[in-house]
Amino acid sequence: MIRQAQAKSRKAISDYNTAVRGLQRAVDNYNREARAHNARVRANQQRLRSELARLSSQRSTTRYTVTQTSTYTLHTAFRQVEVEADYWDDRGQLLADLAEAETANSARVANTLLGAAVDEELEDTALTDELSAVSADLDQRWRGALFALNPRNPDAARHFCTSSREVIVQMIDIKAPDTAVLAANPGARLPDGRVARREKINYLLAKYGANHASLGNFVETDINDVLNLFKVFNSSTHGEAGKLDMTALRALKVRVEGAVRFLSTVIRGA
């Protein structure tokens, strides 16, 4: 009896120590993730401040007035997200963090178009499975867009912009088809019969679990910011793809990649 009691006591102590060690590992893991998250947040904050300060000191040009205005509009949308994000759960706060990075990316491309350099290989990509997880066709379109970014291609800008626009628009349409959006909200149809993109965004955010009005406004503004860039490039006279145009296209490529990563998070729940 005594030996049995001692054995039970030793087992209880061992189980307790195992539980304590497991709890400590969980705490350590949480602390590591928290430190990494906070470091990313600080980096995004610093990058956004730096890019906005640089943008405010840049000499404005008629050619890129729309781009600058679009960046400031996106920053205004982010500020509203920033004000509300402390009251959101982890999913909402993740999108808020990504929104800050998107705003910095927008300011970066505006600065680049106004004369700053970007060091990036054109045919490399920061994307992994973000597009193939949605559609193999979208992934192939993106690869084709990258292939078009060649200094020897005089029509590189148009090819890249056309393909990239389709990628972004189709990401939303595939994951938020009209029938699904209308089933969730019969009032989402516009007078001309189309389903508003904002309603598709609201649908995706609801599926994700973060359907906040300011986030919906930011996502829509972010998409418009990228689409405005495509308009700027397509309406400009590029001629042969020289050094200046390639520098601008590098900036645009980085901007599109960021938008795709952001959207891939938004549509994750759909």
TrEMBL record:
Residues 132-263 form the Predicted pPIWI-associating nuclease domain. It comes from Phytohabitans kaempferiae. This is Predicted pPIWI-associating nuclease domain-containing protein. Residues 13-58 form a coiled coil. InterPro entries: pP_pnuc_1. Keywords: Coiled coil. It holds the Pfam family pP_pnuc_1.
